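Sample intake sheet
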Amino acid sequence: MEVCQPLTEVANFSCHAIQQLDHKLAALREQYDPIQHFEDYEGEVHKIFAQAERGVLEEDLSGLDVDTPVIEVNGTCYHRVLRSSETYQTVAGSIKVPRTLYRNGQDRCIVPLELRAGIVEGYWTPRAAKQAVWMVAQMPPGDVKNLLDLMGNMSPSESSLARLPKKFNNQWEPNREAFEGILWESVKVPEKAVTVAASLDGVMLPMKDGKRKEKREQNKSDGKRTRGPAGCQEASCGTLSFYDTQGERLSTVRIGRMPESKKVTLKNSLSELLDEALRQKPDLTLVKVADGAKDNWTFLANELPEGHEIVDFYHAAEHLKKAFDLSYGENSAKSKEKFTTYRHILKEEFEGVERVIKALVYQYKRHPRRSKLKTELEYFRNNRARMQYAEHLSQNLPIGSGVIEAACKTLVTRRMKCSGMRWRLPGGQGILTLRSLIQSKLFDNGWKLLAVTYCCKVTKTGVNNVIPFPSQKTE
C-alpha cells in the first residue's frame, strides 16, 4: 500500500469556523466578566475551541472524498454505489462527514475518503486512534472512557475502546515479522554499551478459553484442590538490555507474548533483536540470564550465540533458603544464620557454589529421607556452571534477572491481572504488543508502520464506455 495522501494545505481551514470562534469567545468573555470560577470558564473555552477544531477537521476530511463513477485502487476498478454520511471520532470529538462508497462485484464496499485519510477501522481518525490505543494499553476501557469524559475531547463508547486492542492485533500480527525487522533496525545500541543481556520468563495469565471447568473436574477426580488459577496459561516476556563498563543499565527492549507452546514467537523475536544488536556492535559481551527453568536454558544456551550464562542470583538464594529451612526448620534462627552465611559465600566467593553444594550434601546425609532437600541439592548441582557470581561481579556483568521480572510485572500483571479479568489471544496480544512498544520507546515508530496499512492511493479513472454498477443502497 502507498502512504496516505497529505491533507489539503492549512490555508483551507474553514473561514466560517474561525469567524464563529471569534464571536463565541467574545460572547464568553462578556458572560464571564468578571471571572469568578476560573475552572468553569476554562471548560467553556475548551468547548469553544474543540467545536472550532471539529469544524475544521470536518471540512478538510470531507475534502478528501472522491465522487466519480469509477475509481482505481491497487490496480482494481471500483464503481460508485452510494453516497451517505458517516460519523468519525477525532481528537476533538465526533464529526459527521458525507462520503462516497464504491464496490467491485460482491466485495465489501470501500470508502476513498477513509483510504486517503487513513481512517482506522472505519471510525477513528489516525491521531484519535493513536491516542485511544495508547490509553487502552495502559488502563481498562472503562477507566479510559472516564478519563476522556473528564478531558472533554473524544467521546467514544466503552465498547469501541474495548475493541481497539483486538483490531490493532488483527492488523499487526499479519505484518509482525516485517514490522519487527524495521523496528529492530531502529533500536540503536547505546554508544557506551559494552554488555548486552538477554533474558526471558513467564507469568500465569487468566484466560477465557483456559479450559477452566475441565481442569476443575480433573482435579476433583484426582483428589486434588479445586481452587486456584485453574484457567490460567503462561504468557511470556523477553528482554534485551544494554550495560556500560560499570554495569549500569542503559536501556532495555521488552517483548510480550500471549500463551504459546514453547514460547516460539517470543524466542524468534528475541533472537532476531539480539542479532541486530550484535550486527551494530559485534564486540558486545553477551550475558544470558534466567531462572533455572529447563526450557529457558534450552533456548538461551543452544539457540543464541555463545556468551556468559548465569542463573538469576535471587532465584538461587530462594532455593538456598528453602534448603536450610528443610534442614533446620522453617524460619528458625539456625536456618536464618546458615542462609545468611552461605548466601554471602555463594555471591562473593569464587567457586562459592562448590562450598554451598558441600554444605547441602552434609545436610542431606543428616536427613536422607527428606526428598525435597535432595531436590534443592540437585538444583545447585545441575546449575553449578551458571552460578559463578563472584566472577561475573568482578567483570561488572549482571547476575540477576530483575529486568525480566520487572517486565513480567509491568507488561502483564499491572494491566492484565486486575480483578475479574480474563483474556483471549487476539485482544490480549494487542495489549501486550502495545505495552511492549510503549515501554521500549518504540510506540511512535510502531504506530507509523501500522497507520500505513490503513492508507491507500485512490485514482480516478475515465468514465467513457463504463458499464454502470447496479444501484445498491446497503453497504
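Comment: The longest strand covers residues 76-90. Residues 270 and 407 are 14 Å apart (CA to CA).
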